[in-house]
Amino acid sequence: MNPKSTIIVLVAALAVLSGAMGMTLTGAFSDQGIMTASTGNAATGMLIGHVAIEGRHADGELFAYRELDNAVVNDGEQCILKMLFESQSIGAAGRGGSTTTGSGACTGVLQGAWDVIAIGTCTDCQGGGADAPNDIDVLLTTESTANGGQRGLATSKVWTNGTFPQIVMSKTFTASGGNIGAVTESGLFNATGANANGMLARNSFAAVTINTGDSITITWTFKVGD
């Protein structure tokens, strides 16, 4: 199954950088052919998704660049609806206490925001391979858990208001005490524990190898069009 590049209500934009932050905006696309929009962002209430990847050595030298569309998983879509349309009183400890069922259902009460960034490695995730991003994903294939590659809260959040309001969240991973290795996937979560569920979006890309001293910054951008 091919991952969605956008959803009608929400699409995440991911930019992976090293030592810098950037964003590339693409046109809006429909989900399952229900809605279409021009690259002029004519659609109402949509967020535009795109992925840019840069890798830099410790001296700032650029050694890798990738770009592709982004993917949002079913679990994330379900959780978005629960967060938007369910009051906190339904869930004793937070919003989203009602039960949802089916593939990729968002389960449990939603207590945290989607501001936890993770990186990892998938060996067969290109060209529709077995580990390629899928609508039913809830975890990365092999999440990085050592040498500076551990998931964590975004260390930067920048809000911009205006015709197209947006939030940009980023976290830098710096290899220390050893190599992080080949980074080929990233995900946005609402839980800080290693390999914990709560995925909103995931994407994979050609390997960016992070050796000791190198760094990679993951930047997620959510931009609303009107």
Could you explain the architecture of this structure?
This protein is globular. It has one domain (13-225). 5% of the residues lie in helices and 32% in strands. It has one helix at 74-85, and strands spanning 13-17, 46-47, 51-56, 62-68, 116-120, 152-153, 156-160, 166-174, 181-189, 199-210, 215-225. With 226 residues, it is mainly β. A hairpin with a 5-residue loop joins β3 and β4 (62-68). The strands form two sheets. Strands 1, 2, 3, 4, 7, 8 and 11 form a seven-stranded mixed beta sheet that branches. A four-stranded antiparallel beta sheet has the order 6-5-9-10.
Descriptive key words:
disordered N terminus, 4-stranded antiparallel β-sheet, mainly beta, 226 residues
Average predicted confidence as pLDDT: 73
Overall 3D form: globular
Distance linking N and C termini: 30 Å
Instruction: Please report the number of helical segments.
Output: 1
Major pleated sheet: 7 strands, mixed
Number of domains: 1
Helical content band: under 10%
Which structural category fits the helices and strands? mainly beta
Beta strand count: 11
Low-confidence stretches: 1-45
User: Strand percentage, roughly?
Assistant: 25-35%
CA-based gyration radius = 17 Å
Listing every helix as H and every strand as E from the N terminus to the C terminus, the arrangement reads EEEEHEEEEEEE
